[in-house]
Predict the structure.
Amino acid sequence: MAFMAAIVGAFAFNRAPETNTKAAAQFLGHYKVNGICTATDVMCQDEVETTPCQSGSNVLYKRLSSTNCPDQLWRIEE
């Protein structure tokens, strides 16, 4: 009986494995041309990674308004 209680207790108090529930938000990348945030067809993420999101040689940013795209975006890692 004590053996059964030990087994039940071991499983009852083990923590479930944590999963990564915070997924990075995805945004269409923009770059600034003559003061205007210009859209590309490249999808990027806002979670900081090691590789900047780029279209050609342009580093891409998140668009807040037509003239304000200050936040750098990162390449989506699969």
Notes: Strands lie at 26-33, 36-45, 54-55, 58-59, 61-62, 71-72.
